[in-house]
Fold Profilin.
Amino acid sequence: MSWQAYVDSLTGPDSSGNKTIEDAAICGLASGAESIWASSPGLSSLTADQIKKLAGNSSALRECGPSIGEMKCMLLTDDSENPSSYCMHLKASKNHGGFNICVGKAKTAMVIAKGKDGTAGNQVSTRVFPIVKYLRDAGY
């Protein structure tokens, strides 16, 4: 499956037929080569610096929340080391819609998903977790 197919799967309907993810991206985390591997249009403006910050130590994100593309965000919880989640849970500022965002980290890849308006954070992370788990198990 291509990287874009993973993004398309995330932004498509879930098993209940609901579309809960508005935008998604898969990024590479290799030091010095942080980049977008595939994305939907709403996350295509992610920068290498933003990817680096999201991949780094989350304690720095607690004081000054990260930006994802044009959205300023706040870190809610970091469950990226929890094997039942592997995600950081973020919320976009009210000026940027207040969307729930999930950032799942594998060894060399990161999955970012932005929920649709009104989508709860757990609905976003439920979609991201299987892909992150698969990537981790496959060595990514």
In short: Residues 103 and 112 are 5 Å apart (CA to CA).
